[in-house]
Amino acid sequence: MREILRQELVAATPPQLKRICDEIREEIVQTVSVCGGHLASNLGTVELTVALHRVFCFPEDKIVFDVGHQCYTHKLLSGRAARFGTLRREGGLSGFPKRTESPYDCYDTGHAGTAISAALGIAKARDLRGETFSVIALVGDGSFNNGLIFEALNSLHILNTHILIILNDNGMSISPTVGGTHDVLNELKEGSAPPEDVRLFERYGLEYMGVCAGNDIDALLPALEQAKQKLQSTSVLLHVVTKKGQGNAFCENAPTRTHGLSPESAGTEYSAALGEELCALAASDRRIVAVTAAMTDSLGLRPFFDAYPARAFDVGICEEHASVLCAALASAGMKPYYAIYSTFLQRAFDEIVHDVCGQDLPVTFCVDRAGITGADGETHQGVFDLSYLSFIPNLTVGIPKDIGEFRAMVRASAGYRHPFAIRYPRAGREGDDSPVEIGTFELLHKADSNVAVFAAGERCIALAQAVRAAANAENIDFTLINARFLKPLDEAMLASLPQKYIITVEDNVRTGGLGDALDRYYLNQGRVFANFGYREAFIPHGEPRSLARRFGVGEEDVLAAVREFYARG
């Protein structure tokens, strides 16, 4: 696509701006169809972003995109159009704002709820330096459920600065927006809100402007000009209403399905198995409830929500609250299953520690998208969960080798009376779903050699099996063990293992995971280790296998360790 400069936007007539919006929308559709990415959210904010780039002067003015799902038009208007075809490709443009990518990106985002806090910090730094640029936080109504938003609003008076908050209200997060905040925003859109709803924003220190048609460039331009003038004396909340997927009929009718697209089939998804197993368990166990933080469909819970609506809870983008809710449900005799992406579970660490595990409550965390997830980059790689879960007392951590074993773990969790986390990638293969005893490893292959490989999870077992095939071609063999529980370790197997040379492979950072756990167990026992996990780094976007090799978990490196240990005898 051609580069569109701000001078062109400033000089353009409204019909010309609409043609530019059509041009951008077509470019986004074509690129996402090849590279994958967040489609519906970006289509819904084309007019809004074009209007912002005309009224404000970026990068002198600053804009923080909450989450960042909707930043593609911003990238196209900020000197990156020629590289837009590299979107989400390794070495190419990120699908989220990145400070290292462009001066137009003033703050990295990727998780919900951070934009207002970030905008306040940037604005306060501006004030302290005596500068005068405008600071904008573009926040979706889904993020407005997040507690961090209200923590930031609460400090507006304290910080004594001015920002523009644009509330992009499309009625959606990934799933439809839910909760009391959603109801208030609906009343404001419909004109039926009582005066106290607007006064609430005013009490935070905001002048409320709304409701503006966010897909109408003719309505947006004067509203943004007015908001810009008001920023001289106050902070402003501009409430705009957009349509997720705007301009593409399929996306408009299927905003959840087209929130995020992969350029190729992901294969069989673990989430589908989760939905099936929970429905089956709930049929005979009235204690079972399911909880999600605004991701019902993505996590496979739609069948459960449809079959058992009274026992299904979508709390919006409120991961911490969901964890405490699960703890309280469990304390009152229920059996909660909390499905969540690995990267989002990080946000609830304190609640996992104190509310769930501190009380030893039978909550099951179904940790999806664990390990390297690929194209969404640093904020979405699930490579820390084994580390931050490994040291929490009372918590059991399972790492199934395939979807069949995952099913078995879900069934085993139903009668388990302690906290349980099961972590798994997005997709994989079916397998044997025979019962699994909690805390046991599985011997996959026994060899008459002094080398043993412990692999955790489907990807790493597949890698270890590929290494074994290559080693066998060189007349080298090793014992292969499915290390399917990080906590508790299978101490009976570990104590009986004769091998001196131990190799561990995990889809997690090296620090704090499986390798560290076995190192501690075998301390001072004369064992020799080679641990393969990701080195200490924030892993960017790219193809998962390529990233795994690049950051420390590759077949050639593991094979080299096998050769070396085998040669030592």
Task: Describe this protein's structure.
With 569 residues, the protein is α/β, with parallel strands linked by helices. The chain has 3 domains: 6-253, Thiamin diphosphate (ThDP)-binding fold, Pyr/PP domains (Rossmann fold); 273-428, Thiamin diphosphate (ThDP)-binding fold, Pyr/PP domains (Rossmann fold); 442-568, Rossmann fold, CATH 3.40.50. It is 40% helix and 17% strand. The strands form 4 sheets. Strands 8-7-9-10-12-11-17 form a 7-stranded mixed beta sheet, with helices on both faces. Strands 1-2-3-5-4 form a 5-stranded parallel beta sheet, sandwiched between helices. A 5-stranded mixed beta sheet has the order 14-16-15-18-19, sandwiched between helices. The chain is globular and about 80 Å long. The relative contact order is 0.08. The model has no long low-confidence stretch (mean pLDDT 95).
SSE map:
Blueprint: H1 6-11, H2 14-35, H3 40-44, H4 46-55, E1 62-65, H5 72-76, H6 115-128, E2 135-140, H7 147-154, H8 156-159, E3 164-169, H9 180-190, H10 195-204, E4 206-213, H11 217-230, E5 235-241, H12 249-253, E6 268-269, H13 270-284, E7 288-292, H14 302-307, E8 312-314, H15 319-331, E9 335-341, H16 342-345, H17 349-357, E10 364-368, H18 385-390, E11 396-398, H19 403-414, E12 420-423, E13 427-428, E14 442-445, E15 451-456, H20 458-472, E16 479-482, E17 485-487, H21 491-496, E18 501-509, H22 514-521, E19 528-534, H23 544-550, H24 555-568
Parallel strand pairs: 1-2, 2-3, 3-5, 4-5, 7-8, 7-9, 9-10, 10-12, 11-12, 15-16, 15-18, 18-19
Antiparallel strand pairs: 6-13, 11-17, 14-16
